[in-house]
Amino acid sequence: MILLSIGCGGKKPTARNVPPAPSLPAAPAAHAGAARTSDADLHVDPHAPVLWTQEGYASWYGPDYHGHNTASGEVYNQNGKTAAHNTLPLNSIVRVVNLKSHQSTVVRINDRGPFVGDRIIDLSAAAAKAVNVYLPGTAKVRLEVLKSPHPIETGGRWCVQVGAFDSESGAKRLQGHLLRRYPDADVLRFKGPTGYWVRIRVAHDEKGKTLEVFDHVEVNEGGVFLVRLD
Question: In terms of CB atoms within 10 Å, which end of the chain has fewer, N or C?
Fold first, then answer.
């Protein structure tokens, strides 16, 4: 059964039955060729000003996703210093600091995720090894954004991502509910590496309207996530 609650949303439920590092499908073809930031750009001034910070838990993803497309359209390389984050602009450069060991590394955001609980970033295997996340699987970290190709707090293209569902029928029922509730939005259903997902895209992928949808959708299977598309 799917519970679709239309009302003020509180803390969104944790996605269930999801491995540590699911990622979104590749970006639409029009954006698949977006400019890639060179790994050479990861060598930043250690005294560079910090544009934005966040604290929470990091996890990592590796072999199961190695060689598959990321949300930026490039191929995921677990040996590169990259990471997945749901709301930072793609190609942002971020310092990741392990709050317990104080180890740090610099990564480039090229994917979306993690879609699990209170985790805020999924590191590549190489980045996870650099900050002692690889063996324990998770660790509390601080993110420090050093470069971003777009404003972080304003603008952007956004969607609400709901899932993962164990069966396509569950995702299909939710899609029907949401299409009736939001007839002017694009409500898409698709299969990802961890199950079936529903994505809601309002007119022009505008952030304010997307936040309104995010605040009003709750489900009893999977989780509800605010995701930046660009």
Answer: N
The whole domain housing 86 covers: 41-147
Q: 44-95, pLDDT tens digit by residue?
A: 887 889 999 999 999 998 777 888 788 999 988 989 999 999 999 999 999 9
The pLDDT score that the predictor gives to residue 39 is: 54
Reduced to 3 states (helix: H, G, I; strand: E, B; else coil), residue 176 is helix
Task: Determine contact, residues 184/213, Cβ cutoff 8 Å.
Answer: no
C-alpha neighbours within 13 Å on the C-beta side of residue 62 = 13
Gap between the Cα atoms of 96 and 111, Å rounded: 16
Find the CATH number of the domain harbouring 98. 2.40.40.10
Q: Last residue of some domain: 127, 147, 167?
A: 147
Tokens 């997307």 correspond to 210
Q: Which amino acid, one-letter code, is at 114?
A: P
What gap in Å lies between CA 12 and CA 19, rounded to an integer? 18
**Domain total of the chain:** 2
CA distance 67 to 72: 13
- Confirm if 35 and 91 have CB atoms less than 8 A apart: yes
> Residue 199 pairs with which residues in a beta bridge?
161, 188
